[in-house]
Specification:
- By secondary structure, this protein is mainly beta.
- The chain has 4 helices and 14 strands.
- Helix 2 (10-17) crosses helix 4 (162-190).
- The longest helix has 29 residues, at 162-190.
- The chain is elongated, with a radius of gyration of 26 Å.
């Protein structure tokens, strides 16, 4: 009888610790930046062709974990307290706890992008203007799991009469444990599932110049909240109800007839998410690539670093600065029957902080009309 009576308040305490799928979605652990890399064999191109062009891009993303601030799999810790909803031995009792839960994420995602653009015939200050729109679609399937040992509750306060203290404490602990584990399982289920929808459309304007053995690109991209997004869901294709402005420049140059080196630097600026008040911190990105020309195509390595230089604001988990370092390879060739370029890319995250960590396989087909 005593056990049944004292177990009821345990759920209220358990709910304080558990990070729901909703909070997980709000804080994100991701940025609006192409983590598969932005440079490939196209950096060897030393001739501009005015007119319409298009890209079809398919990227397979395999997420193996969400990393914490130390780079290891994320663990969530939080202290909480509760009060019994009904008197226990004539008085409302309170207790506190401190616990942690390990977060495990496995996610398989396919991104499909259609990019349409135009390069001007006219030159402006020695270069041409490029305008493009990127229309994305994504399908994802995720398994999200929270696991943790039930915390030990502090002694009930005010103290229960000594004769019944041990029995009362055990009863509350038992009920707390049952509901605590049930809450972990419930929130794991909320973060598990699949989604398929349109993503956030991006528009880009750039100035492009090719001169001698050097190519220079200066541009700005605006990402808009057009994708599927529900602030009360953990399974979203869109990033949220906010805008991201990415500005930067890229340069590539031929060191000899076979080797081309390239670099791209970017700055990203985020507006607040008007649905939940979270503002993801601004960030910078650096892409490096080396392309070696062979009789069968262009091969090379590429490196990527993307890092927030500002804290997140208004989120559940504090500053939560995103950082990801990736390394990979690419191969580019010409598909002669359709006169289109094909770029194959593999990128693996070798280090990450506060980020979804994984690998990327991408195929990109480029056609000029």
């Amino acid at each position: 009888m005593l056990s049944h009576r004292l177990s009821r308040p345990a759920f209220a305490a358990a709910a304080l610790l558990v990070v729901t799928g909703h909070a997980f979605a709000a804080d994100g652990w991701k940025l609006r930046f192409p983590l598969a890399g932005t440079l490939g064999g196209e950096i060897v191109v030393n001739k501009l062709t005015p007119g319409l062009f298009g890209n079809v891009v398919v990227t397979q993303v395999e997420v193996d974990k969400v990393s914490g601030n130390d780079g290891d799999s994320l663990r969530l810790t939080q202290a909480g307290s509760f009060s019994t909803p009904t008197p226990v031995f004539g008085a409302v009792r309170t207790a506190s706890f401190s616990g942690s839960a390990a977060v495990a994420v496995k996610q398989s995602q396919t991104n499909s992008n259609l990019l349409l653009g135009y390069l001007t015939e006219e030159e402006y200050y020695g270069g041409r203007l490029s305008f493009s729109v990127n229309i994305p679609h994504a399908s994802l399937s995720r398994t999200f799991t929270l696991t943790g040992t039930t915390p030990t509750l502090s002694t009930l306060s005010p103290a229960v009469p000594p004769a019944a203290a041990a029995q009362a404490q055990a009863a509350v602990q038992q009920g707390f444990g049952t509901n605590y584990q049930a809450a972990l399982a419930s929130n794991s289920a909320k973060g598990t599932g699949s989604a398929s929808a349109m993503g956030d459309i991006e528009v880009t304007g750039a100035w492009v110049q090719v001169k001698d053995d050097m190519k220079v690109v200066l541009g700005t991209t605006l990402a808009m909240p057009t994708g599927q997004y529900d602030k009360d869901s953990a399974l979203n294709v869109g990033f949220g109800n906010y805008y991201t402005l990415r500005s930067g420049g890229a340069v590539s140059f031929k060191t000899n007839q076979n080797l081309t080196l390239g670099a791209r630097a970017s700055l990203g600026f985020n507006s607040p998410n008007t649905d939940n008040g979270v503002r993801t911190g601004n960030f910078w990105g650096l892409d490096l690539a080396a392309a070696y020309l062979t009789p069968i195509g262009v091969f090379g390595p590429h490196l990527l670093q993307v890092t927030q230089y500002e804290d997140d604001q208004g989120g559940t988990f504090g500053g939560n600065r995103f950082s990801a370092t990736g390394a990979g390879v690419f191969y580019t060739t010409l598909i002669r029957p359709i006169n289109a370029g094909m770029n194959l890319t593999y990128m693996k995250m070798v280090d990450s902080r506060n980020a979804l960590n994984g690998s990327f396989v991408q195929i990109r087909i480029t056609k000029r009309f």
